[in-house]
Every structure is written in structure tokens, then in C-alpha cells.
Amino acid sequence: MTSKVTINRLSTGVPGLDDLLGGGLPEFSFNLIAGQPGCGKTTLAHQIMFALATEERPALYFTVLGEPPLKMLRYQQQFSFFDPAAINRSVRFINLCEEAMAGDLEHVLARIAQEVAAHEPSLVFVDSFRSVVLATDAGGQAHNQLQRFMQQLGMLMTSWQATTFLIGEYFTDTDANPVFTVADGLIWMRQSVQRNAMVRKMEIMKMRGQPSLPGLHSFRISGNGLQIFVPALETPTLPGAPTGSRASMGVPGLDEMMDGGLPRGYSLLLAGPSGSGKSILAAAFLNAGLLNGETAVIAAFERRPRRVRDQTLAKAIEDGRLGVVESHAPDLSIDEVTQLLSAEIRRLDARRVVIDSLSGFELALGPSFKDDFRESLLRLVTSLTAMGVTVLMTSELEDRYTDLRFSPYGTAFMTDAIIVQRYIEVDSRLRRVLAVVKVRDSAHSDQLREYSIDDDGIRIGAMLAAHEGLLGGRPTTRPPGGPAREG
Amino acid sequence: MNSQESSRFTAALTQRVAEDANSRQIADAIGAMWADIDVALQPVLGRRGVAALFKRTLHLTATRHPWLAALKAGGADSAVDLVELTELFAQQSPAAVAEAGCALFTLFRDLLTTLIGDRLSERLLQAAWSTSSRAAPAQDPTP
Lengths: 487, 143
Hints:
Radius of gyration of chain A: 29 Å
Strand order of the largest sheet of chain A: 5-4-6-7-3-8-9-10-11
Largest interface: A-B, 17 and 19 residues
Distance between the termini of chain A: 78 Å
Oligomer: heterodimer
Number of strands of chain B: 0
Number of helices of chain B: 6
Distance between the termini of chain B: 31 Å
Order of helices and strands of chain B: HHHHHH
Largest sheet of chain B: none
Shape of chain B: globular
């Protein structure tokens, strides 16, 4: 007999947490939820409890010192997951205040054992565990006593086959705390303030036996409880997403320049200075899809998408063929935007996505996420294109004539295609040119073409063959028939 | 005061005592009802938590039934002495006992509802009500 034990994984009911834990909560595990006061520990515990507890799999929630149970019940019932009908049926609250006040851990343990034997719960919560520790009056023996208590509690809970959570306020994660050693799982919750924005983050510091996602992951608490924004790395391709074909850009002449349009599933960076018509080109791209019977999603961070001037787009938003993702939360993260976008793409079975613009997007992010903008953006682009959608992102480009840069983020390498727009001065007029800089695996045009914008959108004209040095911003006229300037 | 709640307590009380019960019997019934509530709430709210709520209720009830003020004293941590409570009730006229008892329970329920809402209060007190109905004395129905 060599068969190994199978550890069941429970679905926690907290959006994102199962992925973060590496596939759910291991049954009979002994876990610690730690963090500073106010970071959402009790809310997380309640959310998990109400999601998992059934009459066959009841939960015991021990309240110790700290927050009075009356207050806890008053506030927790504001969340949608709180079900009063479950109380005293599948969920039972037990107050250990008297035992804890006596300051004897043995007493606390005995009472927990007694209640566990009486109710045979599958889930046990002790809130807050920290107060149990603080209440001990062990005269220097606190550390030893606590270690013994932990060991015994861990043993007791495992033998009663109860999945257990200890909830505690801890301010530093570096303490050599016996609790941390005994626990199978360690969920650390933090809130960090940077400039004007507060961001909540969760970290699975330990989860025995399974590959939890490393790192800090932002979460938000709303009326529905916690929602954790987990980076989407493996996104299954949408069923029916066309591959191999090309998506029309919706601008006459541009498809030809791109060797037949933008390959499906590609990401395109459209870079240009302010007023060069990036949003107009993006709108044309969306319109081309809509005309083709496709649905699309736009994430607009610059202009208010509800005030889209383009009548066709406005109509499509109204009809539900064009989804809009917009968020003005001060703690917005790229992972959250990724999640919002994926949800909207799935809902509409969308084929095209426009992010207008990356510059506005960066401004909309919470301050603490800006440092990781490039890395997170790469994840966003990867996960979107992995879904099979075709992505167009616009990027504000400072018009510099001394170097040729396509985006301020070094994002050019991560996209499959690049179109750049520039201003040039010809005959004392500001004129616009565009070029297809890159379309991966395509024989795209290398021409620098003038274009104009009128009521019908972008109209691509001819090359300015009579000029040279266009990218320098101040082209010179080449004498007709004369040789091209050297260098 | 919530009249629906009030009539429910009156009903629960009349279930426990005969119609011509004396003050002592009514007082004992009130004491027993309170003990049931205490048993139902203590595990959840803690002994001190329930005691604090009950003391506040006594304080509120005493504004209309000043003779209850004698019970108000006591440390913050001490639970209400049920023996003392029933003694005090037993000294009043049966009508006064019934009325004050009813006010006491209704105010208690109102206070709990203000704090944790109607549904949860009902849920937590359910155990107490089921005990009350189990404890209904066997007696002939009044014609």
C-alpha cells in the first residue's frame, strides 16, 4: 500500500483567495490570519465561515477579548455574506471572555475542547488569538506556555478534523513567534499608505503542501466582503476566438500598410503626441470590429467614455456591443483592471480591446502600483492576448526630434505591433505623418505617410517624397530628381 | 415601545402562569424567562455582554417603574442577581409585576434589535422562545 493521502481543498468563497492559496484551502489545516487592526481579518474569517459552513459541516467561532461580540455582529451583518439564518444552525458563536480574563491558557483550551466535543465542528475560528496571548499571566513563562498551548490546540483540532483559523493582530512578521511555526497556513494582511492612497494587500507567507502564489496581492473590501486581485497568468483562450486571420484597422490604406491588417490575438501600441489622433484611430479600430459583427471592450482612462463623441461607438455602448471598463478608485491596481477587463471580455465574448491611454491608465493607478507599472503591464498584455483578443493601446508620446522612442514605459518591446504618429513642420504648417514601425511576422510597409483628420476620421495620404529628414521634425526639401542626402 | 413585541411577551408570560397567579408566581415566571434569555445569549455575547445589556434595560424600565431603580446598583462586571430581581417583583401588585415585566422584556428586545438588527436578534433569542414554549405549564384552556 503506497497510496498517499489526498488532501481535500475547500473553496473559500472569497473571490481570488482560492487561486492565491494555490487551489483552495487544505482541509483540516491550521491557519493563522494575521495583520494590523482594521485590515479586514475578522471580515475575511466571517466570509470564509459563511461560505463554507453547512449544517453537516458546522462552524464554531470563538470570540475572545478585543472586539465585543455585540459590536462584531452589528458590523459584520452589514456584509452581504452574513446570513442571520445560519446562526445557531450552521454557525455558532462562543464567547471565551471569562476564561481569557482569568488569564489561564489551560482554561481557554479546556473550554475550546469542551465546545468542540459538544458541537463537532468542521471549521473553528478563534478571534482574536492575540488577545489570548496578551491575557496570559505566566510570569516570564509566556513563551513556553504559548508554545504548549499552540501545540495542543493544533493537535486537538487536527484530531477533531476541524479546519482551523486563528485570527490575531501582529505588527511585525519577523517575530520568532511559535504560532507561525505551528501553523500550516499563514495569511498576512497589510494596509499601506503611500501619498494619498491606502492600499490593502494580502500575502500567503506559508501554505503547507501547495503552491500558493508568492508576493503581495491587492484586495478591496466592499459590501460583498473581500475581493482579491490575483494576477491572471494562465488565461484560457476564449472559445471561438479566430486565429490566423487579420483584424481590419478601419482606416483606408492602413491595413495594406500592415500587410493586411493587425493579426488576431496581437497587441498594438499606437504612440503619438497629444492631438495626433490616437483616440480617433482607436475608435476606427473599434468601429471596424463592430461593423464586422464583433463585440469589443474599451478601457478609457483619459476622456470619459460615457461622453464618447463617436456616435457609432455611443450607440454600441448603449446596445451592449461595446463594454466599458472604467474605475476611479484611488487604490486601483493593474491586476484589478486586468480582472475587470477579462470579466467584461468574457461577458461580451469580445474580440477587440482598446486601452486609451496607457498614460491615463498610469495616472489612474494607486501610487504604490506605479513603481511596478511595466511588469504589471506586461502581465496585462500577456493575459489579454492569451485570451485571443486583439488589443490596441494608445500611448502619449512626447514629440522629441532627437531620438525615436515609442513609449515612455519601454513598453514597445512587449507589443506585437507598433504604429507611430508624429508632427512635422512643412511650409510653416504642422502636418502629421504616421508609420508602421513593427508588425511581428509580417511584411509591413516601411513608408512614412502623411495623414489628415476630417469628419470621416483618419485619411492616409501619400509619402512626402519631396522631403527628407522628416523624423527630425524640420524636413528639408529635396531638389526634384536630386540624389538623397547622405547620412 | 413595540406593541407587537409587548403582546408576544404577555402571551409568553400568560403561558407560564395561571390567570389568577399572585405576584410571587408572576415574578418567578419572569425570572425563569430571563434565565432562558440569559442561557440563549451568554454563549454568543458573553456573561458580561448580556449583563451590560440587561442593566441598561433595567435603567430604561425604571423610568416608568421607579421601584425597579433599587436593582440598578452593582458593579460594571457583576451580573444581575435574579433572586434579588424576583424578590423585588414579588413585592408589587400582580398587575404592576405583569406590566413591568412586559416592559422589561420589550425594552430588552428593542435594545438588542437596535444593536444587531431584527433578524439576528430573533435568531439568537429563538432558543429562549423554544424553551418558553416547552416550559408551558399543563393547564386547562380557559373557556
